[in-house]
Structure formats: structure tokens, C-alpha cells
Amino acid sequence: METILSLCIGIGLSAACGFRVFVPLLVMSIASLMGWFEPMKGFEWLAMPSVCIGLTVATLCEIGAYYIPWVDNILDTIATPVALIAGTLTTMAVSTGEMSQFTSWAAAIIVGGGTASAVQLTTVAVRGISTATTGGIANPIISTGEWLGAIVVSILSLIAPILVVLLVIMLMFVVIRWIRKKRQEKLNKIAPY
Fold it and tell me: Which residues form the DUF4126 domain (predicted)?
């Protein structure tokens, strides 16, 4: 049961990495410093005050950069592989000692990296549609939703991990349906018959 719970926490934190790379790591660092979260062996660095300060600066820079027109689209290109790495690290940082080192890393890469990548690619698609349909005017609204989502999902992942997994699945379903609907509308405009 502990393994399933840690994977649920990892999925939630990884999903948050798909929204904003540094937010979940910052939340984990703050929780570690406050004694609410104990990272696995090898990830004790999350509980260092200097790491928390560095993650705070990185988080603020990342959030701010997404409000600069067209830079947000460029950042998505960089953030996609970085989200995979961050999702893997966050999942590994919460994995239990019940699994072997190989199994823990495999699960972290597949579950954590996969979840972060799926969420990140979804945000890339949403931002791409927003840029194409509004010329980027709506992108700040999307950026605000992403960083707020990253904070809420990160905190909830540590408090109610199973609920977060269900919410992530539901959110992905809603976003995929929205993207398909927008694509169909675009196709109908091109070939209305």
C-alpha cells in the first residue's frame, strides 16, 4: 500500500512539473524544511535552505518568463524535456524503500516522466491553440492557470495523493476533448462540407 501511495504522490508532483517545472520541487523543499515531508535517501538536498532559495528564484523566473509574449512558446520547447527529468526526480524523491533501486528508477521514469511529459505536451498544445486563435493575447491567462495549477496540485499531492491522481486523469480527459473540439472546428472552417 505504501508503494501505491508513493506512486500517487509521484504522479501528482509529476503532473505539477508538467505545468511548471520548478514549483513542485519548491513545494517539496518547503515541506521538507518544515518537517512535513521527508525525501528519500539521496534527495536530502531538498531540505537545504540554500536549495529552497535557489528553487524560489528559479520558480519566480520561470513564472515571470511565461508572461512575455512569444517567449512562452520558446520556453515550452525547453520545458518539455526538462519536465520529463523533473517528473522523474520528483517521483524518485517520494519512492519507498520497498522497491529495488532499478525498479524505483524505472517506475520514476515511466510514471513520473511520462505523467510530466503528458501534462507538458497538453499545455504546449493549449498554448499553441491560444497563440494561433488569439495571437497570444490569451496566453497570460493560460500561464496564470498553469502556475496556479502547479501550486495546488503540488500541495494536494502531499496532502491527498489519490484525489490528485483522479483529478489529473479527469483534467487530461477534459483538455484532450477540448483540443479535439478546437481541431475539429478548425477543420470545419477549412472544409465546411
Answer: 7-181
